[in-house]
Structure to design on (243 residues):
């Protein structure tokens, strides 16, 4: 890479939420090793069974971790926008346990496995970031299980959309998701009619705006905290009390 390419890459790189963990010398060594790959919506980032050779950042767009059951039913585990994924298989030294698919047109950043472990072993701040990321993944997984078992469809959709934007990611340039309702229905594990009704309800409450294959989130905190009202006839939702 010539100096101009490295400078351009570095200017974009400093937008990453863990870039502060690297010294200038570490960044100079790491940046030329990163690969930027453009993907169209629906393209695979990796397939189940692939060797885990990279840590992957979502520089633009969103993705889902998913698989297909033995009976042919699609199953979505989680989704992310502007975050980093794939650290579990690297740490466990195992093949990818599921598919990773772009939900929208995306740019992914691939960090080689050797570079990931070099930072993990020698940079305490980076190591702490990865621990924080793993903790966030666990919390999200538990939240998905809880929502599947206890939340009404509107609350489930609200929290599922909000979960795409975790705190340990790139600062999102916007909260606009370019994704079809068919894909969102799979992501939220519900039928399209139920998803559409939930989205319309959330739009009526001012928490998101719908367009053609576009959902723009308006209030992340409210979506994360969304709960069904005690009475379905009330037409409102509850929020946590504040001190």
């Amino acid at each position: 890479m010539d100096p101009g390419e490295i400078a351009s890459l570095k200017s974009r790189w400093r937008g990453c939420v863990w870039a502060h963990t690297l010294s200038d010398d570490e960044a100079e060594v790491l940046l030329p090793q990163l690969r930027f790959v453009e993907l169209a919506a629906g393209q695979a980032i990796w397939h189940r069974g692939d060797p885990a050779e990279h840590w992957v950042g979502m520089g633009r767009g969103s993705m889902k971790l998913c698989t297909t059951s033995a009976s042919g039913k699609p199953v979505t585990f989680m989704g992310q926008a502007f975050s980093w994924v794939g650290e579990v298989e690297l740490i466990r030294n195992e093949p990818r346990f599921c598919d990773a698919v772009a939900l929208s047109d995306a740019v992914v950043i691939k960090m080689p496995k050797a570079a990931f472990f070099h930072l993990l072993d020698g940079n305490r701040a980076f190591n702490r970031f990865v621990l924080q990321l793993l903790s966030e993944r666990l919390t999200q997984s538990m939240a998905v299980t809880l929502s599947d078992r206890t939340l009404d469809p509107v609350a489930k959709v609200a929290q599922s959309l909000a979960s795409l934007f975790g705190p340990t990611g790139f600062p999102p340039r916007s909260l606009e998701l370019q994704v079809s309702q068919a894909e969102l229905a799979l992501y939220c594990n519900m039928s399209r009619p139920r998803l559409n009704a939930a989205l319309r309800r959330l739009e009526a409450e001012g928490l998101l705006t719908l367009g053609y294959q576009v959902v723009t989130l308006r209030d992340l905190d409210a979506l994360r905290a969304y709960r069904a009202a005690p009475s379905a006839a009330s037409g409102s939702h509850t929020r946590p009390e504040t001190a």
The mean pLDDT is 83. The chain has nine helices and 13 strands. The two ends are 53 Å apart (CA to CA).
